[in-house]
Amino acid sequence: MFAFPRFDDAAISGRGRTTVDASQYRRLFADLPVAWIVHERGVIRDFNAAAGDLFAVDSPETRIGGRLLDYVHPESADSVRERLQVLHETGRPVRAVAERMLRADGRDLWVETIASLTAFDGRPAVQVLCWDITERVLERARLAHAAMHDGLTGLPNRVMLEQRWSALRTRRRPHGGSPAVLFCDLDGFKKINDDHGHAIGDATLRVVAERLTGALRSDDLLGRYGGDEFVVLLEGYTPELGQQLTDRFVDAVREPIRVANTVVHVGLSVGLAVLATDDEALETLLLRADQAMYDDKRGARRDRS
Predict the structure, then answer these.
(1) Interatomic CA distance for residues 248 and 11, integer angstroms
(2) Which residues is 233 bridged to in the sheet?
(3) I want to staple 111 with a disulfide (CB 3.0 to 4.6 A). Which of 130, 236, 258, 275 is the partner?
(4) HEC states along the chain?
């Protein structure tokens, strides 16, 4: 359960305690463009108009006496408590860090905060200055996502597949089964691009990605490796599982695809390779899986002849 540290006079004596009273505080911070909040063990004692705007509070004076935790997102509750504990133990203002908060209208926002000890109307309290960094945090998240995901389908890209494989191949597997990869290649996709154009081709790839995702197990990872090639990283391989997933993927893709009033058909060829040694790179397995897929295709053509 969240509990604010207790601050007493000894905690702030000799540590830059401010001696101004509440009215002086309000004059100092009323027009400050940065949000200013004073709380006593989590109970709000005062805040300025900028804080009211930041947290979507129409009448700030009505929130005095309310709980600071009402504006702290659950994900940041532990961080807030730890920072207050450091403040209590050292008396030094804590550095600015990003924390996830909640507005009065229920929307999330990210802020940077600096907290320091003070005395408010002669009582020990904590003074907080904070400012909105939501756009910066969201932009950083967008860039991080773009670096790891395919722009067309939203699936993990080569970079993310490589990272996940590096972790997967060395992970201890208490229930047996080695990691494996499925290499999936669309059949007939070039004809779609040639006959209908790349816009229809791109839309087809997005539908295929959705269908393969729907046929995936929760423990496995599907990514787009490039062009019309998809890769599945399997947590633990057994022959039964490999065949089951292959059948599910082939069945999911072979259904007609309707995009922009056009119906197209594609098939799926799948090759599988199982990790042989813990240092085997993903590229090596994909070459083996690609060869297995080619051998299956060649065998299928020979059977039909």
Answers:
(1) 65
(2) 181, 221
(3) 130
(4) CCCCCCCCHHHHCCCCCCCCCHHHHHHHHCCCCCEEEEEECCEEEEECHHHHHHCCCCCHHHHCCCEHHHHECHHHHHHHHHHHHHHHHHCCCEEEEEEEEECCCCCEEEEEEEEEEEEECCEEEEEEEEEECHHHHHHHHHHHHHHHECCCCCCECHHHHHHHHHHHHHCCCCCCCEEEEEEEEEECHHHHHHHHCHHHHHHHHHHHHHHHHHCCCCCCEEEEEECCEEEEEEEEECHHHHHHHHHHHHHHHHCCEEECCEEECCEEEEEEEECCCCCCCHHHHHHHHHHHHHHHHHHHHHHHC
Superfamily of domain 149-304, CATH level 4: Reverse transcriptase/Diguanylate cyclase domain (3.30.70.270)
Instruction: Work out the widest C-alpha separation in the chain, in whole angstroms.
Output: 95
Domain ranges of the chain: 9-138, 149-304
* DSSP bridge pairs for 40: 43
User: Is the separation of the CB atoms in 130 and 113 below 8 Å?
Assistant: yes
For residues 132 and 201, give the distance between their C-alpha atoms in angstroms, rounded to a whole number.
42
Contact assessment for residue 116 and residue 25, using Cβ atoms and an 8 Å cutoff: no
Q: What is the spatial distance between Cα 84 and Cα 94, in angstroms, rounded to a whole number?
A: 8
Q: What is the CATH number of domain 9-138?
A: 3.30.450.20
- Residue closest to 83 by CA, chosen among 113, 47, 110: 113
- Write out pLDDT tens, residues 62-85: 678 888 888 999 999 998 888 888
Pull the structure tokens for residue 1. Answer: 């359960």
pLDDT digits (tens, 9 = 90+) for 259-296: 988 999 999 999 999 998 888 899 999 999 999 988 87
The string of pLDDT tens digits covering residues 180-202 is 999 999 999 999 999 999 999 99
- Residue 125, Cβ density class (10 Å: 0-12 exposed, 13-18 middle, ≥19 buried): buried
